[in-house]
């Protein structure tokens, strides 16, 4: 795994080569895939609190007769997307939210220890040239506390953890200094644990969530490394 991370790419394949070529024509704009769910007219229409009478059909997500399955059809899930580089980036749901994957992941998943195709386009040294989103500084930083077992006791950041220790619980830990690295931190190697492809489906309910501080810049960029300790210092 370390070799794959240091190298910045997985094993080359025809699919990866095609994707890298398509990435050269990537668009810089972003789209809000939650726009239809946040539409004020839709939210007002679905708000049961302002209705005098609420039917049984309106209570469920299916909006059909609850006593019959004859007219119930499962939602068709379509994950087809343009090739990497030819798609439009998705707007982040909130500041520093993990960006969702706007392109096809055919041939890219699952990620394996010796084959991570994502790194071929998204490592900083490659991203700009192919029009991809660069992996941010936070992914090259180890934020985990230094942990050792000493004399049968758990020691984090040089302090004993436990009821009789210097730290009552792990929530009291303050990292002395985050460790910047020249290579991708291995805890970030599995991209799909946070970043996921999005199906082409209409959300079944409206969404009143409105993110604070989501400026045009942060719709497609991260400031997580600068804001990591906000609210905990």
From TrEMBL:
Name the domain of life this protein comes from: Bacteria
InterPro entries to which the protein is assigned, alphabetical:
Multihaem_cyt_sf, NapB
Which family is this protein grouped under? Belongs to the NapB family.
What GO molecular functions are on record for this protein? metal ion binding
- Keyword annotations of the record: Electron transport, Heme, Iron, Metal-binding, Periplasm, Signal, Transport
Task: Tell me the protein's name.
Answer: Periplasmic nitrate reductase, electron transfer subunit
The GO biological-process annotations, alphabetized, read as: anaerobic respiration
The cellular location(s) given in this protein's UniProt record come to: Periplasm
């Amino acid at each position: 795994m370390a070799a794959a991370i240091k190298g910045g790419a997985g094993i080359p394949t025809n699919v990866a080569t095609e994707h890298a070529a398509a990435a050269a024509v990537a668009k810089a704009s972003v789209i809000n895939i939650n726009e239809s769910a946040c539409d004020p007219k839709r939210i007002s229409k679905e708000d049961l609190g302002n209705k005098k009478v609420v039917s049984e059909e309106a209570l469920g997500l299916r909006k059909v007769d609850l006593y019959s399955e004859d007219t119930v059809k499962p939602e068709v899930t379509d994950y087809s997307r343009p090739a990497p580089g030819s798609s439009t980036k998705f707007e982040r749901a909130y500041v520093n939210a993990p960006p969702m994957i706007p392109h096809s992941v055919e041939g890219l998943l699952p990620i394996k220890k010796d084959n991570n195709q994502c790194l071929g386009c998204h490592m900083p040294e490659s991203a700009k040239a192919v029009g991809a989103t660069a992996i941010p500084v936070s992914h090259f930083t180890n934020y985990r506390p230094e942990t050792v077992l000493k004399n049968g006791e758990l020691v984090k950041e040089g302090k004993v953890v436990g009821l009789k220790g210097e730290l009552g619980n792990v929530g009291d830990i303050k990292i002395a200094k985050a460790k910047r690295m020249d290579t991708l931190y291995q805890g970030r190697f599995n991209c799909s644990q946070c970043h996921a492809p999005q199906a082409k489906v209409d959300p079944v309910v409206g969404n009143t969530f409105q993110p604070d501080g989501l400026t045009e810049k942060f719709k497609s960029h991260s400031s997580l490394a600068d804001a990591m300790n906000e609210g905990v210092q």
